[in-house]
Amino acid sequence: MSIDKVRLTRAYLSRVAEPPAPALAAFVDEVGPVKAAELVRAGRVPEAVEGQTSARRGEDRAEQDLRRMAELGGRLVVPEDDEWPEWPFNALTLAAANGLKCGLAPLALWVRGKANVAELAERAVAVVGSRDASGYGQHIATEFGYGLAEKGIVVVSGAAYGIDGCAHRGALAAEGSTIAVLACGVDVPYPAGHANLIARIPERGLVVSEYPPAHTPARHRFLTRNRLIAALGDGTVVVEAGRRSGAKNTAASTTALGRVLMAVPGPVTSASSTGCHELLRSGQAIAVSTVAEVVESTGRIGADLVESTRQSSTAIGPPNGDAVRVHEALGLTTGHSAEVIAVESGVALSTVRALLPEFEMAGLAERVDTGWKRSHVTAGCGDA
Amino acid sequence: MSIDKVRLTRAYLSRVAEPPAPALAAFVDEVGPVKAAELVRAGRVPEAVEGQTSARRGEDRAEQDLRRMAELGGRLVVPEDDEWPEWPFNALTLAAANGLKCGLAPLALWVRGKANVAELAERAVAVVGSRDASGYGQHIATEFGYGLAEKGIVVVSGAAYGIDGCAHRGALAAEGSTIAVLACGVDVPYPAGHANLIARIPERGLVVSEYPPAHTPARHRFLTRNRLIAALGDGTVVVEAGRRSGAKNTAASTTALGRVLMAVPGPVTSASSTGCHELLRSGQAIAVSTVAEVVESTGRIGADLVESTRQSSTAIGPPNGDAVRVHEALGLTTGHSAEVIAVESGVALSTVRALLPEFEMAGLAERVDTGWKRSHVTAGCGDA
């Protein structure tokens, strides 16, 4: 099967169902994308898939979409590509398998920008927050965007007004890379006031979306999109969030995916920081005041140690024994960070990161203040 | 033994050694205050006590001190008095027994103000922070002082410039009670700029100190004093603290005593909030943005429920079975608050609060996000 054929097929599939479409995703996994597309077109699919695809199955604009992308200097990245961010999206698949709403990897990713998606996602942090940001929040988002980019960390955000825009701009100002994940087609400059920003990002980074070209934004698409922002970062920093900010949705996805959630404190007299303080107070988020603390919290300090392991394992996929080794490396009484577990088990950090939430769902591990530990049930007391 | 004789003796003892004097405290516990004072005066004491008392053992100004206090409308409160804050100070004794530096109850408490010490300490929260407070910190300290007092909660602080002063003033503005714990004699108006404030506090609250009249403040006395601030509150709120603020010392005492430590977030651009953010980031403190959150964090919501139990138990002291009942009421897998444990065990909240840190030291209980639980060792897995 040629990659071009697969790409054309996935371009069709990416338009045929509104993400997230779990039944279609499962069907594609089961029979492969090409066969799945054939059967969807023919309407010969299981009922659940039919429900998700019947409305748009005749809408085959894959060739035009790919041509339009090429004109814009863009492309469609598919799971069969080397640059597919396999490990970042793995957590989504696992989360979906565990019934989490925020789960499910995209069927394909529409991309503008020359950078390799997987490479950019290797060392990335999401920086998100309110559109209606205060001067304080805008200042911090810009500083964090700049500071992270200066350290070679890619800034992932949603290109919205307020915090998102400041984070992207900060990264660009430091001549760093940034990824904007849109809730519409990557050829749709939304919000309009950020058309220039969105046009600039592909020069040094990526504008990505699971929505096909010309797709317009919609309320539910922002929520659906947020899981990709959370998945592409090693962690998420909420700079400012009001009580009802959409950033809290990204925060929830971050936690559900087993990523590090961070929140920036602010004046308690500011409604723009209420959401951040709620996340801190509930213990969901770690407080971060500086870029150095973000780096420390996302555990990138020991990253170089496990870099070589990660590379080889990414290439060949995890051997069967990985899960056992990772589980054995879990602390019995105190939690270990994913980095420590990776070093101790010799299993790639990305694999460790993907396995930990799976263990959690299975009741084999739990998150504590200091990282991950075995659940007591499995710590030798199960039969006591 | 008449209470007057005991009081005179403890007045002598409170001047004879520089607190904290663990050897002297243990000696007083062993032989009683009157006998201890006799032996100290005669120099017939164990070597450790001799080291703590030899320098000042001839300095007997007990009668003058008590007279001076009476002139000021003050008094010396001793452990033999009904108004001795037995349970708040119990945690200090336990901490000392466990080798914690911040431990050790005072030998006596010099007091100005008509209120009953034990009654005021029944429902109190410490509000502390930097002397060099920002406008933001001063605003919050005043608001918290006012808001807590409005809810009938006594505000404990150190009468220093900055946060302390604002907290006291806020409480007074709400016509509530406040306790100022000084690092000098209660007749010494320190800091000088707070002479009026310190003179006003006894009208509605208390100015207290373990240092005898005319004792001047000294650097180490502030640190020694801080443990009493922590002990007199159900919890401590750090409103603002720089990286090297003395408030961090009070914070450490609070945690060591098993009290709730809270910190107010602030702008990360403000050096005055750095200490608060460190406490939040390390997980030592819970974030509090409002007075309601302080009340919630200190678990006062269910306080009325256990009030009657507390009263009776305070009067008769804990029966031997209390420790067993409290331990049985601990959660096996999830943590319970001290309030819940008190209700479930039928043991007075104060006793529960005093026992929990003791259990922790003995490895019988541990603190988790949600409160206290049994340590795994004792949860049925010990022999597995």
UniProtKB/TrEMBL annotation, chains A, B:
Domain spans labelled Smf/DprA SLOG: 77-297
Q: Would you tell me the protein name for this molecule?
A: DNA processing protein
NCBIfam families per record:
dprA
Please give the Pfam families that the UniProt record associates with this protein.
DNA_processg_A (PF02481)
Q: Which GO terms are recorded in the biological process aspect for this UniProt protein?
A: DNA-mediated transformation
Q: Which family does it belong to?
A: Belongs to the DprA/Smf family.
Annotated transmembrane regions: none
Which Gene3D superfamilies does the record match to this protein?
Answer: 3.40.50.450
Superkingdom of source: Bacteria
**Residues annotated as signal peptide:** none
- InterPro entries the record matches: DprA, DrpA_SLOG
